[in-house]
Specification:
With 316 residues, the protein is of the alpha+beta class. 29% of the residues lie in helices and 27% in strands. The chain has two domains: 5-82 and 148-315, Aminopeptidase (3-Layer(aba) Sandwich), CATH 3.40.630.10; 84-143, Elongation Factor Tu (Ef-tu), domain 3 (Beta Barrel).
Length: 316
Protein backbone atom coordinates (compact mmCIF):
# COMPACT_ATOMS: atom_id res chain seq x y z
CA UNK A 1 0.00 0.00 0.00
CA UNK A 2 3.01 2.30 -0.39
CA UNK A 3 1.94 5.83 -1.24
CA UNK A 4 3.26 7.48 -4.38
CA UNK A 5 5.90 10.18 -4.08
CA UNK A 6 3.30 12.68 -5.24
CA UNK A 7 0.91 11.64 -2.46
CA UNK A 8 3.66 11.81 0.17
CA UNK A 9 4.82 15.22 -1.00
CA UNK A 10 1.27 16.55 -0.72
CA UNK A 11 1.57 16.18 3.06
CA UNK A 12 4.97 17.84 3.37
CA UNK A 13 5.74 21.51 3.88
CA UNK A 14 9.45 21.43 4.61
CA UNK A 15 9.64 25.20 5.13
CA UNK A 16 7.05 25.09 7.92
CA UNK A 17 8.68 22.08 9.57
CA UNK A 18 12.08 23.78 9.43
CA UNK A 19 10.64 26.95 10.96
CA UNK A 20 9.09 24.94 13.79
CA UNK A 21 12.41 23.22 14.50
CA UNK A 22 14.24 26.55 14.59
CA UNK A 23 12.10 27.99 17.40
CA UNK A 24 14.02 27.63 20.66
CA UNK A 25 11.67 26.31 23.34
CA UNK A 26 13.16 23.95 25.90
CA UNK A 27 10.90 22.82 28.76
CA UNK A 28 9.78 25.79 30.81
CA UNK A 29 10.67 28.23 28.03
CA UNK A 30 7.83 27.47 25.61
CA UNK A 31 6.72 31.10 25.23
CA UNK A 32 8.64 31.53 21.95
CA UNK A 33 6.80 28.58 20.43
CA UNK A 34 3.52 29.91 21.77
CA UNK A 35 4.21 33.24 20.02
CA UNK A 36 5.17 31.49 16.78
CA UNK A 37 1.99 29.40 16.80
CA UNK A 38 -0.29 32.34 17.60
CA UNK A 39 1.21 34.30 14.70
CA UNK A 40 0.87 31.28 12.41
CA UNK A 41 -2.75 30.78 13.44
CA UNK A 42 -3.59 34.45 12.89
CA UNK A 43 -2.19 34.29 9.38
CA UNK A 44 -3.39 30.84 8.26
CA UNK A 45 -6.48 29.69 10.18
CA UNK A 46 -8.77 31.92 8.11
CA UNK A 47 -8.03 29.64 5.15
CA UNK A 48 -8.93 26.40 6.96
CA UNK A 49 -12.14 24.46 6.41
CA UNK A 50 -13.41 25.63 9.82
CA UNK A 51 -12.10 28.54 11.82
CA UNK A 52 -11.19 27.49 15.37
CA UNK A 53 -11.73 29.28 18.64
CA UNK A 54 -8.21 30.05 19.89
CA UNK A 55 -7.94 29.86 23.67
CA UNK A 56 -4.84 31.03 25.55
CA UNK A 57 -3.87 33.29 28.42
CA UNK A 58 -2.50 33.21 31.94
CA UNK A 59 -5.02 30.60 33.07
CA UNK A 60 -3.39 28.21 30.57
CA UNK A 61 0.16 29.51 31.18
CA UNK A 62 1.98 29.06 27.82
CA UNK A 63 -0.36 26.41 26.43
CA UNK A 64 -2.83 26.86 23.56
CA UNK A 65 -6.20 25.21 22.90
CA UNK A 66 -7.90 25.22 19.49
CA UNK A 67 -11.59 24.30 19.55
CA UNK A 68 -13.35 23.26 16.32
CA UNK A 69 -17.12 22.77 16.06
CA UNK A 70 -18.52 20.13 18.42
CA UNK A 71 -15.42 18.28 19.62
CA UNK A 72 -15.33 14.59 20.55
CA UNK A 73 -11.58 13.95 20.43
CA UNK A 74 -8.49 15.97 21.34
CA UNK A 75 -5.02 15.98 19.81
CA UNK A 76 -2.18 16.66 22.25
CA UNK A 77 1.18 17.88 20.90
CA UNK A 78 3.89 19.20 23.21
CA UNK A 79 5.77 22.40 22.39
CA UNK A 80 8.97 21.84 24.41
CA UNK A 81 12.26 20.15 23.58
CA UNK A 82 15.23 18.73 25.43
CA UNK A 83 18.30 20.91 25.94
CA UNK A 84 20.45 22.36 28.69
CA UNK A 85 20.33 25.02 31.41
CA UNK A 86 23.46 27.00 32.26
CA UNK A 87 24.37 26.51 35.92
CA UNK A 88 27.40 28.16 37.55
CA UNK A 89 30.74 28.85 35.87
CA UNK A 90 30.60 26.72 32.68
CA UNK A 91 28.41 23.91 34.03
CA UNK A 92 25.29 22.65 32.25
CA UNK A 93 22.27 20.80 33.58
CA UNK A 94 20.14 18.66 31.24
CA UNK A 95 16.58 19.61 30.37
CA UNK A 96 14.81 16.30 29.86
CA UNK A 97 17.19 13.68 28.49
CA UNK A 98 19.39 15.14 25.74
CA UNK A 99 21.76 12.67 24.09
CA UNK A 100 24.60 14.45 22.35
CA UNK A 101 28.31 13.90 21.66
CA UNK A 102 31.14 16.21 22.79
CA UNK A 103 31.56 19.04 20.31
CA UNK A 104 27.84 19.37 19.60
CA UNK A 105 26.92 22.97 18.81
CA UNK A 106 24.54 24.60 21.28
CA UNK A 107 22.81 27.93 20.73
CA UNK A 108 20.92 30.46 22.82
CA UNK A 109 21.07 34.06 23.96
CA UNK A 110 21.61 35.93 27.21
CA UNK A 111 21.98 39.56 28.34
CA UNK A 112 25.16 39.95 26.29
CA UNK A 113 23.78 38.60 23.04
CA UNK A 114 23.65 35.49 20.87
CA UNK A 115 25.49 32.34 21.87
CA UNK A 116 26.94 29.48 19.85
CA UNK A 117 29.06 27.23 22.03
CA UNK A 118 30.26 23.63 22.19
CA UNK A 119 29.18 20.83 24.49
CA UNK A 120 31.89 19.15 26.57
CA UNK A 121 31.91 16.39 29.19
CA UNK A 122 34.14 15.75 32.18
CA UNK A 123 35.59 12.33 33.06
CA UNK A 124 32.61 11.96 35.41
CA UNK A 125 30.29 12.67 32.44
CA UNK A 126 29.16 16.06 33.75
CA UNK A 127 28.19 18.50 30.99
CA UNK A 128 29.96 21.83 30.37
CA UNK A 129 29.99 24.48 27.67
CA UNK A 130 33.02 25.83 25.81
CA UNK A 131 32.63 29.50 24.93
CA UNK A 132 34.69 32.67 24.87
CA UNK A 133 32.92 34.20 27.85
CA UNK A 134 30.71 33.30 30.78
CA UNK A 135 27.05 32.75 29.95
CA UNK A 136 24.35 34.09 32.26
CA UNK A 137 23.18 31.43 34.69
CA UNK A 138 19.74 30.05 33.86
CA UNK A 139 20.21 30.55 30.10
CA UNK A 140 18.56 27.87 27.99
CA UNK A 141 20.72 26.21 25.35
CA UNK A 142 19.48 23.91 22.62
CA UNK A 143 20.96 22.09 19.63
CA UNK A 144 21.93 24.20 16.65
CA UNK A 145 19.50 23.34 13.85
CA UNK A 146 20.93 21.48 10.87
CA UNK A 147 17.88 20.68 8.74
CA UNK A 148 18.62 17.97 6.16
CA UNK A 149 16.20 16.63 3.59
CA UNK A 150 16.67 13.79 1.12
CA UNK A 151 14.28 11.95 -1.20
CA UNK A 152 13.11 9.67 1.61
CA UNK A 153 14.09 11.27 4.93
CA UNK A 154 14.06 14.41 7.01
CA UNK A 155 16.82 14.71 9.61
CA UNK A 156 17.21 17.53 12.11
CA UNK A 157 17.24 18.22 15.81
CA UNK A 158 13.82 18.42 17.45
CA UNK A 159 11.56 16.42 15.18
CA UNK A 160 10.44 15.39 18.68
CA UNK A 161 8.02 17.07 18.93
CA UNK A 162 7.98 19.70 16.20
CA UNK A 163 6.73 16.99 13.87
CA UNK A 164 3.88 16.36 16.34
CA UNK A 165 3.00 20.06 16.16
CA UNK A 166 3.32 20.01 12.37
CA UNK A 167 0.96 17.04 12.19
CA UNK A 168 -1.60 18.87 14.33
CA UNK A 169 -1.41 21.97 12.13
CA UNK A 170 -1.89 19.95 8.94
CA UNK A 171 -4.88 18.12 10.44
CA UNK A 172 -6.31 21.49 11.53
CA UNK A 173 -6.57 22.58 7.90
CA UNK A 174 -9.52 20.25 7.26
CA UNK A 175 -10.82 19.66 10.80
CA UNK A 176 -14.53 20.30 11.45
CA UNK A 177 -14.98 18.96 14.99
CA UNK A 178 -12.23 18.47 17.52
CA UNK A 179 -9.75 20.02 19.92
CA UNK A 180 -6.03 20.57 19.35
CA UNK A 181 -3.88 21.21 22.41
CA UNK A 182 -0.31 22.46 22.45
CA UNK A 183 1.10 21.50 25.86
CA UNK A 184 4.21 22.30 27.89
CA UNK A 185 6.89 20.54 29.97
CA UNK A 186 6.44 17.07 28.46
CA UNK A 187 10.20 16.42 28.20
CA UNK A 188 10.91 17.38 31.82
CA UNK A 189 8.25 15.83 33.99
CA UNK A 190 5.04 17.28 32.58
CA UNK A 191 2.53 19.30 34.55
CA UNK A 192 0.27 21.05 32.04
CA UNK A 193 -1.81 18.13 30.76
CA UNK A 194 -3.94 17.60 33.90
CA UNK A 195 -5.38 21.12 33.87
CA UNK A 196 -5.75 21.11 30.09
CA UNK A 197 -7.63 17.81 30.25
CA UNK A 198 -9.82 19.16 33.05
CA UNK A 199 -10.66 22.21 30.93
CA UNK A 200 -11.78 20.31 27.82
CA UNK A 201 -13.61 17.63 29.83
CA UNK A 202 -15.63 20.12 31.85
CA UNK A 203 -16.16 22.58 29.00
CA UNK A 204 -17.12 20.23 26.16
CA UNK A 205 -17.22 16.71 27.61
CA UNK A 206 -14.17 15.61 25.60
CA UNK A 207 -12.62 12.43 26.99
CA UNK A 208 -10.85 10.89 23.99
CA UNK A 209 -7.29 11.88 23.11
CA UNK A 210 -4.65 11.16 20.49
CA UNK A 211 -1.03 11.83 21.39
CA UNK A 212 0.69 13.50 18.42
CA UNK A 213 4.28 12.74 19.33
CA UNK A 214 7.29 10.92 17.93
CA UNK A 215 8.38 7.44 18.94
CA UNK A 216 11.43 5.26 18.29
CA UNK A 217 12.70 3.13 15.47
CA UNK A 218 13.38 -0.19 17.22
CA UNK A 219 13.81 -3.89 16.53
CA UNK A 220 10.06 -4.07 15.88
CA UNK A 221 9.27 -0.65 14.40
CA UNK A 222 11.05 0.35 11.19
CA UNK A 223 11.55 3.35 8.94
CA UNK A 224 9.14 3.58 6.02
CA UNK A 225 6.59 1.01 7.21
CA UNK A 226 3.99 3.55 8.33
CA UNK A 227 2.92 5.45 11.44
CA UNK A 228 3.28 3.67 14.79
CA UNK A 229 0.22 2.93 16.91
CA UNK A 230 1.40 2.22 20.43
CA UNK A 231 -0.17 -0.66 22.35
CA UNK A 232 1.83 0.35 25.42
CA UNK A 233 4.94 2.10 26.69
CA UNK A 234 5.61 2.62 30.41
CA UNK A 235 1.87 3.26 30.58
CA UNK A 236 -0.91 1.05 29.25
CA UNK A 237 -3.91 2.69 27.57
CA UNK A 238 -7.35 1.06 27.52
CA UNK A 239 -7.13 -1.59 24.82
CA UNK A 240 -10.72 -1.24 23.62
CA UNK A 241 -9.99 2.37 22.61
CA UNK A 242 -6.67 1.49 20.98
CA UNK A 243 -8.48 -1.22 19.02
CA UNK A 244 -10.82 1.45 17.61
CA UNK A 245 -7.76 3.36 16.35
CA UNK A 246 -6.38 0.22 14.72
CA UNK A 247 -9.74 -0.57 13.11
CA UNK A 248 -9.91 2.90 11.53
CA UNK A 249 -6.38 2.49 10.14
CA UNK A 250 -7.40 -0.87 8.66
CA UNK A 251 -10.66 0.46 7.24
CA UNK A 252 -8.89 3.33 5.47
CA UNK A 253 -5.99 1.14 4.28
CA UNK A 254 -3.33 3.30 5.92
CA UNK A 255 0.10 1.78 6.56
CA UNK A 256 0.76 1.41 10.28
CA UNK A 257 2.97 -0.49 12.72
CA UNK A 258 2.05 -1.73 16.18
CA UNK A 259 4.47 -0.68 18.89
CA UNK A 260 4.99 -2.48 22.21
CA UNK A 261 7.51 -0.94 24.63
CA UNK A 262 8.16 -1.16 28.35
CA UNK A 263 9.71 2.28 28.78
CA UNK A 264 9.14 5.82 27.60
CA UNK A 265 6.14 8.01 28.26
CA UNK A 266 4.19 10.91 26.82
CA UNK A 267 1.31 13.26 27.48
CA UNK A 268 -0.80 10.10 27.43
CA UNK A 269 0.78 8.97 30.69
CA UNK A 270 -0.21 12.26 32.29
CA UNK A 271 -3.78 11.85 31.06
CA UNK A 272 -3.95 8.40 32.58
CA UNK A 273 -2.85 9.71 35.98
CA UNK A 274 -5.62 12.31 36.17
CA UNK A 275 -8.92 11.67 37.94
CA UNK A 276 -10.68 12.02 34.58
CA UNK A 277 -12.00 9.09 32.49
CA UNK A 278 -9.85 9.79 29.42
CA UNK A 279 -9.17 7.23 26.72
CA UNK A 280 -5.98 7.90 24.82
CA UNK A 281 -3.67 6.42 22.22
CA UNK A 282 -0.15 7.38 21.15
CA UNK A 283 -0.02 7.62 17.35
CA UNK A 284 3.22 8.91 15.86
CA UNK A 285 5.95 8.46 13.28
CA UNK A 286 9.03 6.52 14.42
CA UNK A 287 12.38 8.26 14.47
CA UNK A 288 16.01 7.23 14.68
CA UNK A 289 18.33 9.11 17.05
CA UNK A 290 15.78 10.27 19.62
CA UNK A 291 16.87 13.34 21.62
CA UNK A 292 20.10 13.66 19.60
CA UNK A 293 20.98 16.43 17.12
CA UNK A 294 20.32 13.90 14.33
CA UNK A 295 16.71 12.80 14.71
CA UNK A 296 15.63 11.11 11.47
CA UNK A 297 12.13 10.29 10.16
CA UNK A 298 10.99 8.70 6.91
CA UNK A 299 8.68 10.85 4.78
CA UNK A 300 6.24 7.97 4.24
CA UNK A 301 5.78 7.72 8.00
CA UNK A 302 5.06 11.45 8.20
CA UNK A 303 2.45 11.18 5.44
CA UNK A 304 0.71 8.18 7.01
CA UNK A 305 0.69 9.93 10.40
CA UNK A 306 -1.16 12.92 8.99
CA UNK A 307 -3.51 10.77 6.90
CA UNK A 308 -4.44 8.56 9.87
CA UNK A 309 -5.06 11.54 12.16
CA UNK A 310 -7.38 13.07 9.58
CA UNK A 311 -9.42 9.85 9.53
CA UNK A 312 -9.37 9.40 13.31
CA UNK A 313 -10.66 12.91 13.98
CA UNK A 314 -13.60 12.25 11.65
CA UNK A 315 -14.47 8.73 12.79
CA UNK A 316 -13.70 8.42 16.51
Amino acid sequence: MAKSVKKIDSYLDSDLLRQLCEVQATSGHEVAMKSFLLNYLKKNSKNWKAKPEIIHGEALQDCIILKFGKPRTAIFAHMDTVGFTVRYFNQLLPVGSPDAEPGTKLVGHDSLGLIECELEFSKENHAFYKFGRSIDRGTQLSYKIDFRESKQYIQTPYLDDRLGIYNALKVAETLKDGVIIFSCWEEHGGGSVPYLADYIYKKWGVRQALISDITWVSDGVEHGKGVAISLRDRNIARRSFVNKVIAIAEKNRIDYQLEVEGSGSSDGGELQKTALPFDWCFVGAPEEGAHTPNEKVHKHDIATMIELYQCLMKEL
